[in-house]
Structure formats: structure tokens, C-alpha cells
């Protein structure tokens, strides 16, 4: 048997095969069984078997239109034939007599000369394998190029927004600091303590806005254009929600919000990355606090939706989201018109979607204008 890197050395072997496998542990058992079967059946006939993993050769999988693994493809002698599924050994025993006849027929025939206007079909597994390998690499390079261009475009947009959005709070903070400096040089009786306190408050507020903008940028550049590496483990989602709510008590009290906790005690554990899910819950709570009016209410609930999924919901009684925008809000950089005068870039929900999708879950919103919003996401139950 040959490795994929040796495809170019097999052009002279009369019997040539490609075996496509996946990354399941029992795939190596299939390789060994099929290899032994070929060696026994083809005794006295030289042959070449190439092993290819489908995850490393997606273009070849598409080229051969493979729908199952393992898949054994007979390249030579022609015609090409695909054997797939769990009974490849039985199929080999069935087809070997016919292949043997084809070998005997081919050995008595000379190569057919093709005219220049009709290119010769590539029949060598070595040559065609190298050609398909290059096509596969070209496909991956194009994909990488597209992703890099998207990242460059995203970073350009972020830099432009950062330069624009930092200007206003920076100007306001500078004015407050300059005014404080002027007051400092005046006699004590003219320094106006109330004004000094107001200016200090204004400066701190603007610095917090700048800090939030920079934090959003760093978080987005770190996660938005990359694949999350989920470190899954059993997670008590009820305990995590309770822990986060306790940390948010100060934020709730500032707006006199009432909080309802509706999570059953017998809720099963989920299989998830605790830090990533903490980020999702915190982001949804921040949004709920931001849009819920003073003395409003927020509900954090969960339910065992199916035998395989747990659903977590965060509901507010804020202004709601128009039906036409309920899917768009999860896209990167999208902001509702009501948010255009507030700090932030609208990246939070996009990050939430990426995190939940990395956990093979779903996230969505149910909302009606002036009646509040309910954000829901699902996570797999730990087995």
C-alpha cells in the first residue's frame, strides 16, 4: 500500500485503487481488512492502494462524488468503479472475476493513440492523483484567500469605526480635564466644588466609554473571524446562571429592575465550554439591562426542551425588535437605528451566535415592538 504522498510513483501498476476513509477510530480496521483482502484476491497481480482521509481531501471527495465511507475506487483497469459502504469485502469478491477478465483483455491490446483535438483521458492513478491533489490544494488556497480578505476588510472597518467613535468621547474628556486644570489655578473660593465634581464625573464617564469601545474591538478581533476551540465538559447551567445573576445585582439595582429566576432544580447538565457560555449569558444580560426601562423586569429561565437539548431564555420588557430585523441583529456589525447614538459596535450578538453554533446549538429571538424581547439558545445535554 502507498501513502497519498506517493501517488506519483504508481503509474506503472496495472491494478490501482484509492481508499477514502474518515477519522473514526475503526477506519484503520477497515484499511487493514480491505488491504488484506486485496492482497489475497490479487495474488500474482501487482497492485497499488492509496489511502486518503476525506477531511484532508475535500476536493477529491467532491470530484468522485462520494457519499459514504469507506469508499474504494478502482482507477485501473478502466472503467473506473466505486465500492462503498460496510460490505466492501463482499463487493470485492463479487467483482474480482470481472476485473480479472478486464486485465487479461487489456494485456492483449496496445495503447490507443488519441488525436490532438481529443485529449487522452488520464488513466494513471499516479498522474491523476497528483493532478487532483494540486486541485485540492488550489481549492484550499482559494478558501484561505477569501477568509484572509474578509479579515482584512473587517479590520479596516473596525479601524475606521474606532477612529470615528473614539473622537467624540476623547474630545469630551479632554474638555473636562482642561477645564479642571483651569479651575485648579484659580483662587480656592472660585474653584466651584460642584463644577469640579461634575467635570470629574464627565471625564470618568467618557473614559469608560472609550474603554468599552476598545474592549469590543479587542474581543471582536480575537473571536469574530476565528473558529472557537470549545473545551467541552459537564456544566450545571443553573448554577452558572445563578452565579452570574449574583454578580449583576449592582447593575440591576441601579435601574431598580426586578429579576425573576425560573430554572428547575432537576435541570440536567449540558456539555459546554463554561467560559464561552458565561460570555453569552453576560452579553444577553447586558443587552437586557441596557434596553429595559427603569423599574422594569428581566426573567432568566431554562427548560429541558428535548432529551438532547436544554434551552436557556433571557426576557426583558424593553422596546422590542421589529420582525424584519430579528435575524439581522445576529450579523456582524449590525446595529438597530435606536442604537446608533450609543457606544459599542453591535458585535456582541454575532459573537454569541458563533459561540452557540460551535456548541451545535441554536440562538434566536422572539420579540414584538414595545412588548420586550426574549433571547433563547440551546445547548446539548451531557450524556
UniProtKB/TrEMBL annotation:
Known function: Member of the two-component regulatory system SasA/RpaA involved in genome-wide circadian gene expression. One of several clock output pathways. Participates in the Kai clock protein complex, the main circadian regulator in cyanobacteria, via its interaction with KaiC. KaiC enhances the autophosphorylation activity of SasA, which then transfers its phosphate group to RpaA to activate it. In addition to its output function, recruits fold-shifted KaiB (KaiB(fs)) to KaiC to cooperatively form the KaiB(6):KaiC(6) complex (independent of SasA kinase activity).
CDD domains: HATPase (cd00075), HisKA (cd00082), KaiB_like (cd02978)
Segments traversing the membrane: none
Enzyme class, UniProt record, top EC level: transferase
Highest taxon in the source lineage: Bacteria
Organism whose genome encodes this protein: Synechocystis salina LEGE 00031
EC number(s) recorded for this UniProt protein: 2.7.13.3
Sorted UniProt keywords: ATP-binding, Biological rhythms, Kinase, Nucleotide-binding, Phosphoprotein, Transferase, Two-component regulatory system
NCBIfam families for this protein: PRK09303.1
Molecular function via GO: kinase activity
Pfam families (UniProt xref): HATPase_c, HisKA, KaiB
Domain notes: The N-terminus interacts with KaiC, while the C-terminal histidine kinase domain autophosphorylates and is probably responsible for self-oligomerization. The N-terminal domain stimulates the C-terminus to autophosphorylate.
Catalytic reaction(s) noted: ATP + protein L-histidine = ADP + protein N-phospho-L-histidine
Complex formation: Homooligomerizes. Interacts with KaiC. Participates in the KaiABC clock complex, whose core is composed of a KaiC homohexamer, 6 KaiB and up to 6 KaiA dimers. SasA and KaiB(fs) compete to bind to KaiC.
Phosphohistidine sites (modified residues): 164
Histidine kinase domain sequence ranges: 161-383
Name the UniProt record assigns to this protein: Adaptive-response sensory-kinase SasA
Gene name linked to the record: sasA
